[in-house]
Specification:
With 253 residues, the protein is α/β, with parallel strands linked by helices. It has one domain: Spore Coat Polysaccharide Biosynthesis Protein SpsA, Chain A (Alpha-Beta Complex), CATH 3.90.550.10.
Length: 253
Amino acid sequence: MTSIHAVAIIPARFASTRFPGKPLVEIGGLSMIQRVYRQVQKATCFQEIVVATDDARIFDHVLAFGGKAVMTLSTHRSGTDRCAEVLDKMPTKPAVVVNIQGDEPFVDATQLNLLVASFSKPETAIATLAKKLTDSASLFNPNVPKVIFNQSLQAIYFSRSPIPFLRGEEQSQWTEKHAYYKHIGIYAYRASVLEKIALLAPSPLELAESLEQLRWLENGIRIGICITQHESVSIDVPDDLKKITAAMLDESQ
């Protein structure tokens, strides 16, 4: 198989509304952004890893631990737009860009390799991850996006609601009666597609669900689904950090 020229871009904002300064908080003696960077380094598919930030504190910190960082505009609506700016600044354009959120300190390298490998198929425009859901709490949690896809593993729809609706069954039995999938928000884009989607205006379905990937589907761009068995652990609020720290302490004892 021909090697795919892929770069990893890690968007990292300081001014998070729910958790300001999140990329610089410590987890077991390392900052969150350094943990993300180290996990991405374990993947074998990248020629380059870059942190994309709009804050000098994060920029300086990444350089201090030996990473590469690029300053970006503070006006971006999403990590995708931040990735597009970094791509535009690259003198040599990669074939594939992978967007790894800066609050995923335990991202799994095999997931990243899987995403990049999917671009060996010329029809792949965008790829993302899904994991089978087995608990009702997550299924009915609007903070856990769900995805349905066709037999060719192409996304049909993403939603914060349980999809599909299982008619005639008790909700407590839904995960036993049907295969439901959680969407894990790591995206890989063909570089030419990333340049295109960065120019698209927010769409009605995106605004309704607050899920940017619906904008791409509404514009006719296919999103391939890679099935993973690895759980994704993102840190959105300070309570998430407390739970992760407690779990790490338990494992070390």
